[in-house]
Predict the structure.
Amino acid sequence: MDDKTRTELEAAAFRGLVAHLRKRTDVQNIDLMNLAGFCRNCLSKWYRAAAEERGLAMTEGEAREIVYGMPYAEWQAKHQKEATADQKRRFEETKPLHADISGHR
């Protein structure tokens, strides 16, 4: 497979993941972090880092809006719930497994 095709397939897979996460607003970021070690915020940070590596300026808010499909504050108001004590405990237990760019270390 050539590089252009691989990049196109990777981009399509990313778009599919983002679309799925936009649909699954019932899944909280803390649950994603606890199970998989990354969340929507991590995706936005990876996106922003990739843009900056290519010389494109992007704010954290702009990157989050690409992933969330709306401003982050709006998503939080509509969909974010208070984390339970168990979710917070699990978050701390799984920190060594969190994505390096996540900012949760």
